[in-house]
Known about the structure:
alpha+beta, two-stranded antiparallel ribbon, 8 strands
Amino acid sequence: MAKVYLGLGSNINAEENLRRGIRELRRRYGQLDVSSVYRSAAVGFEGDDFLNLVVGLDTDETPLDINGQIEAIHRIVGRQRGEERFSSRALDIDLLLYDDLILHEPPLRLPRTDVLDYSFVLRPLAELAPDLTHPETGRTLAEHWQAFDERSQPLTPVRVIL
C-alpha cells in the first residue's frame, strides 16, 4: 500500500464543498488522516479567501488512477476543466505526495511543487506527517515548515466540521 497525501482547497461555498470532497474521498478510500483547516488569501488573483487542508490515505491505486478519482470528484462539485489556473474554485484537489515517488510525466508531477511553495499546503502537510522526508530535498516536512517564511503567506486556523 502506498501512503498518499492530497491537498484540498475551496473558496466557493468552501465548507460545504470541502465536506463533499472529504465525503467522496472517504467513500473511495475509507479512513483518512485529516489536517486542520486553514484560511488563506487567494494567490495569483483577486478573490475570496480559500479554506485549505491536507488528507493522508493508504491505497493500492496508481498515481494515475488517483488522478482519475480526483477528476471524478471535481465533476461531482461542478468544476470545469479549462478554468483559468488562478481563479475561484468550488473544489480543488491535488495529489501532493505518493510514497517517496519522484515522477515528472504529464499530467502528474510528484512530489507536487506546491508542497514547498505554499504555506496552505506545507503547514497542514507538516502537521500530518512532520517526520516524512521530502523525496527530492531529503529534509523532513517539519524542517521545511520551520524554514518557511510564514509572514509571506499568512494562515489562520479555522474550525470546520468535516
